[in-house]
Amino acid sequence: MKPKVFVDTDIIYDLLARREPHYQAAARLFTLSDGVKIQVFISALTIANIHYLISKQLSAGEAKQIIRKFKLLVHILPVNEKIIDLALNSDFNDFEDAVQYYCAIENDIELLLTRNLKDYKKARISVMTAQDFINL
Q1: Domain locations in the chain?
Q2: DSSP sequence for 98-126
Q3: Which sign, positive or negative, has the C-alpha torsion 69, 95, 77, 44?
Q4: Interatomic CA distance for residues 88 and 82, integer angstroms
Q5: Is there a contact between 102 and 90 (Cβ–Cβ < 8 Å)?
Q6: How is residue 89 annotated by DSSP?
Q7: I need a labelling partner for 65 at 20 to 30 A (CA). Which of 2, 13, 54, 91 fits?
Q8: CA distance linking residue 9 with residue 83, whole number of Å
Q9: Within its chain, how far is the Cα of 44 from the centroid?
Q10: Which CATH code for domain 4-135?
Q11: How many CB atoms lie within 10 A of CB 108?
Q12: Torsion-angle region of residue 38: left (phi > 0), alpha (psi -120 to 50) or beta?
């Protein structure tokens, strides 16, 4: 069975905006996904966040086109009322990180990849960077 990983918004933005010095690790990660070696999951919130960020650099139409292609590499998970309630009542300082974390938890994903390790100090699941995951 292919490992299931939940990927935080920052890594996806690194990939799609080619943000250095993090682009290479993100690209390697998604090569594993494209090669069907891992299953990558993201939240629906991530799609909205990425569209917002990319459309600040490109047109809204170009941002949509990038997202259309990208979503072929991932499984998009819904963000529901339970996830929002868990995030609102959590000890997370960053609400968006709490939503991402509980989206992974509620979907039985035991590995979350992010560049913001400090934001997930109290996590009950494994949290690591894309580079650390690739190095495994």
Answers
A1: 4-135
A2: HHHHHHHHHTT--EEE-S-GGGGTT-SSE
A3: negative
A4: 10
A5: yes
A6: T
A7: 2
A8: 17
A9: 10
A10: 3.40.50.1010
A11: 8
A12: beta
Asked if pLDDT for residue 99 goes beyond 90, the answer is yes
6-55 confidence digits (pLDDT tens):
999 999 999 999 999 999 999 999 988 766 788 999 999 999 999 999 99
**Of 6, 11, 27, 10, nearest in space to 107 by CA:** 6
**SS3 of 4, please?**
strand
Return the bridge partners of 7, or none.
113
Average pLDDT over residues 113-130: 93
Neighbouring CB atoms inside 10 A of 72's CB total 8
Residue 33's pLDDT is 77
Residue indicated by tokens 């939503």: 99
Q: What pTM did the predictor assign?
A: 0.93
Rg (CA), the chain: 14
Q: Are 36 and 51 in contact (CB under 8 A)?
A: no
Percent of the chain clearing pLDDT 70 (strictly above): 97
